[in-house]
Specification:
Elements (H helix, E strand, L loop, with lengths): L1 E7 L6 E6 L3 E6 L3 E6 L11 E2 L5 E6 L5 E6 L3 E6 L5 E6 L6 E6 L5 E6 L3 E6 L4 E7 L5 E6 L5 E6 L3 E6 L5 E6 L42 E6 L4 E7 L5 E6 L5 E6 L4 E6 L5 H6 L21 H10 L6 H6 L4 H5 L3 H6 L6 H21 L36 H14 L1
Antiparallel strand pairs: 1-22, 2-3, 3-4, 4-5, 6-7, 7-8, 8-9, 10-11, 11-12, 12-13, 14-15, 15-16, 16-17, 18-19, 20-21, 21-22
GO molecular function: ubiquitin-protein transferase activity
Protein name: WD repeat, SAM and U-box domain-containing protein 1
Keywords: Repeat, WD repeat
Length: 419
């Protein structure tokens, strides 16, 4: 059987991907951030969330050693983060500046591949962070990629529904298969390859109301199958919108599922945890995001601030904040200097996390009372002066002149008539 361990509700937009390492768990979202948790108790690390991307983050993956986290975004970059400090180790700009939709690290951490919306793949030497090779392999968006366990070949998938097997130099297409009618959304290798590389259809799995391409489904459920005989084992019903991500823990009997409802659910599969693991992974009502109070943050009492600290897993700071009489007004005025000199918080990472949480509170307060038409329909952030680049291709706009709808419609009509 399965049981829900906890629900993570920290993201402010769709959860696009989630990934386990041996000791950590990472999620990424359309809110431009990544969040990293301890996979034992799912407490958020002090330097989380990771902010650096300019647009939504589509994918994230850990290096085998667990010391690095890689992410890719619509901003046309693939970023390498340190899981020790939370700092950016490298920013890899995709050739052509097209939005990057997928990234994958080889098991030996020697190579990194990223796929973009323009159908190109970029192969990077991971230790040096240098571009090894790039090429256009499809006419449509690359949405899936995975390295073999031996790290000598990798698979790519696109919106066309095709799967392609490549060598490390991308000089030779080893195999190609038209796999799905409606496009590939994910692909992965089995942990062990017994002999050769042969692409053969073993089973076609169908869920209750939608085709199942992986564990995640558009019917808001997660279907788990026995991979040997294609028997449905469990159907997990918890998310309120489409399930967009799923990941198995390599060290614990856990599975994580992410959704467009902005949440991540952590499930225990059967009951194979030892006593220590069971004590650390107990069912809960779920971690809740900040800002439950209907009051403005500036009107919060010292008790409200203490409750907020507990909600954000910062209960160790409650006594310090109470001793310094930090209410809502004081909370909003905190700086790195006051945290260090007056509250005596020595950890740089912890100070940064507090300030990020306070900034989120400020944004929530601003957005809660403004007209809906002032908010971006995609990010739900207060609109500001736009970038002078295309949100689809990231290329510079030749002009910012707007053409009225009626004028454009007439121009299209004239063009159709002449052709």
């Amino acid at each position: 059987m399965t049981s829900l361990i906890c629900t993570l509700q920290d993201h402010r937009d769709d959860v696009n991907w989630c990934s386990f390492s041996g000791k950590l768990f990472a999620t990424c979202s359309g809110d431009k951030t990544l969040r990293i948790y301890n996979s034992c108790d799912f407490s958020e690390l002090p330097f989380s969330p990771l902010s650096g991307h300019g647009y939504g983050v589509h994918c994230c993956c850990f290096s085998t050693c667990g010391q690095f986290l890689v992410s890719c975004s619509t901003d046309a970059t693939t970023m390498v983060w340190s899981t020790v400090t939370g700092e950016i180790e490298a920013v890899l700009e995709h050739p052509g500046r097209s939005p990057v939709r997928i990234c994958a690290l080889s098991p030996d951490s020697a190579h990194l591949v990223s796929g973009a919306s323009d159908g190109t793949l970029a192969l990077w030497d991971f230790p040096s962070k240098k571009l090894h090779r790039t090429g256009a392999v499809s006419d449509t968006t690359m949405v899936a990629c995975s390295f073999s366990p031996c790290s000598q070949v990798f698979m790519s998938g696109s919106n066309y529904g095709d799967l392609r097997l490549w060598d490390l130099d991308m000089n030779q297409l080893l195999a190609e298969k038209n796999a799905h009618d409606l496009g590939v959304t994910c692909c992965t290798f089995a942990p062990n390859i017994l002999s050769g590389y042969k692409m053969q259809l073993l089973h076609t799995l169908t869920g209750q109301s939608a085709p199942v391409l992986s564990c995640a489904s558009v019917d808001k459920t997660v279907a788990l199958y026995d991979a040997n005989n294609a028997v449905l084992l469990y159907t997990l019903n918890q998310h309120e919108r489409y399930v967009t991500a799923c990941s198995f823990s390599p060290t614990l009997p856990l599975i994580a599922t992410g959704s467009m409802d902005k949440t991540v659910n952590i499930w225990r599969l059967e009951d194979r945890c030892n006593d220590h693991e069971q004590s650390a992974l107990t069912p809960s009502e779920g971690r809740t995001s900040a800002g439950r109070s209907k009051l403005l943050v500036s009107d919060w009492s010292e008790g409200d601030v203490s409750a907020w600290l507990v909600d954000e897993s910062l209960e160790g700071l409650v006594d310090k904040f109470r001793a310094n009489n930090i209410d809502g007004t004081e909370l909003l005025s905190l700086t790195k200097e006051t945290l260090a000199s007056e509250l005596h918080i020595e950890s740089v990472g912890l100070r940064s996390k507090i300030l990020r949480k306070v900034e989120e509170l400020k944004n929530d307060s601003v957005c809660s009372g403004i007209p809906d038409e002032f908010l971006c329909p995609i990010t739900r952030e207060l609109m500001k002066e736009p970038n002078r680049s295309s949100p689809m291709t990231n290329l510079p706009l030749l002009t910012t002149l707007l053409t009225p709808n009626h004028t454009l419609k007439m121009a299209i009509g004239r063009w159709k008539t002449s052709h």
